[in-house]
Design a protein that fits this description.
Blueprint (H helix, E strand, L loop, with lengths): L6 H13 L4 H13 L1 H10 L3 H4 L3 H7 L37 H35 L4 H4 L12 E8 L2 E5 L7 E3 L12 H5 L7 E3 L7 E5 L5 E5 L2 E2 L18 E2 L2 E5 L13
Helix pairs in contact: 1-2, 1-3, 1-6, 2-3, 5-6
The structure holds zinc ion (ZN).
């Protein structure tokens, strides 16, 4: 990929970026571009829904991708103009009626712009699915050996659980306690700038190790990076914890809200229960 990171080159990389299998040099270009390009961030947000497909066998997910499409109303990025006659046209073909009435010309322009967007989305989805199939042939085979629902989501961040102060909490691979932030919501982190330096976001995609219950996901941060989520909560560590096994961030009020350790219910490896 060229170092300037044009929209086209960046978008061709979003699939592998999302799966974590992107080359480090390309990743830097993608992150830099996403930080300044809302359009590409929007594409990334669309693609971020894909990890849901990964929990199913890759071949099945791939088979489903060509059928994926958006309802005409679910296309907020296509502009503020409401779509007149948003009922699907047979075969997505040209406008009925030959007369190029001024409104008709505008409408058909709009329709073809929408069709272009859809074609590009479909192409991106197919690309991402192809990447997944390739990955499935290698390391992803591991995932298939696990019981459904315990699902591996990614190849980058591994999450674990540990007992801290008698409570089973979610941790990163090094054993550092993970936190959620009250002002966050399932699609957006409210912790940016200096907050994110004190409370570093956990990068996505994330995989749950043994004992990790709950649903892992990802959101796109304002800088274009991906942050892991657990049951809809964007995840963080804190610089207040100097060693694994600490939870100094729990209950703390900082950066406009309260911080909580992520308490995992169910069995953890250290609990000794089955
Ligand atoms: Zn762009």
């Amino acid at each position: 990929m060229d170092a300037s990171g044009t929209c086209a080159s960046v978008r061709s990389q979003l699939g592998v970026y999302l799966t974590g299998s992107i080359l480090p040099a390309d990743r830097a270009v993608v992150v830099r571009h996403l930080a300044t390009c809302p359009a590409c961030r929007s594409e990334l947000a669309d693609l971020a829904g894909l990890p849901g497909l990964l929990r199913r066998p890759a071949c099945q997910a791939a088979a489903e991708v060509p059928g994926l499409d958006r309802a005409p109303s679910a296309n907020p990025a296509s502009g503020s103009a409401p779509m007149p006659g948003s009922a699907p046209m047979p075969g997505g073909g040209p406008m009925p009626g030959g007369g190029p009435a001024p409104g008709g010309v505008q409408l058909s322009r709009l329709m073809s712009s929408v069709a272009r967007r859809r074609r590009r989305r479909r192409w991106l989805l197919a690309l991402a699915a192809a990447v997944l199939v390739v990955v499935a042939g290698t390391g992803w085979a591991l995932r298939l050996a696990q019981p459904p629902g315990s699902g591996t989501r990614t190849v980058t961040t591994v999450l674990e659980t540990d007992k801290v102060g008698g409570v089973t909490v979610l941790t990163d691979a090094e054993g550092y306690t993970l936190y959620w932030f009250s002002p966050d919501n399932p699609t957006m982190s409210a912790c940016v700038a200096s907050c994110a330096r004190t409370w570093p976001p956990v990068t996505a995609p994330a995989v749950g190790g043994a004992g990790v219950t709950g649903t892992l996901g990802a959101i796109a941060r304002p800088d274009g990076s991906l942050q892991a989520t657990w049951d809809g909560h964007p995840l963080y560590t804190t610089t207040a914890d100097k060693l694994p096994g600490q939870a100094k961030g729990d209950g703390v009020w900082d950066s406009g809200g309260q911080w909580h350790e992520v308490v995992v219910t169910g069995s953890a490896p250290s609990s000794g229960r089955a």
